[in-house]
Amino acid sequence: xxxxxxxxxxxxxxxxxxxxxxxxxxxxxxxxxxxxxxxxxxxxxxxxxxxxxxxxxxxxxxxxxxxxxxxxxxxxxxxxxxxxxxxxxxxxxxxxxxxxxxxxxxxxxxxxxxxxxxxxxxxxxxxxxxxxxxxxxxxxxxxxxxxxxxxxxxx
Length: 155
Description:
The chain is an alpha+beta fold. Helices cover 20% and strands 28% of the residues.
């Protein structure tokens, strides 16, 4: 197991011998894969490539934009020179950027889903609103006079 550490020194991900990536120091679900050539995938099957690390230590995203650099000692930096963390092998540097989610890259920017509500919660809320409509508090109840008599006088 190779540890991927953040700038504070805590283990934020682990890469096993076959290239499978799990987040955190404890065992958990596989969130990605590291290829032998430095490819970084965000699925356990190794199909969706999100970036790669070349032989010189430059980290590229899926749009071939440089989003980081790893030096010979395993320290990972942003293009501006900020320290992100450290890795044991240079090809694990992409895990720090793409899978651990430390840096928002332009190539992988997506609108995050609202984690508090799910689609089913929204559907149940809409159904409840339709079945039990809320009553305005400032509205007075209509009487027969309002419905019939007042209407006839206006016409």
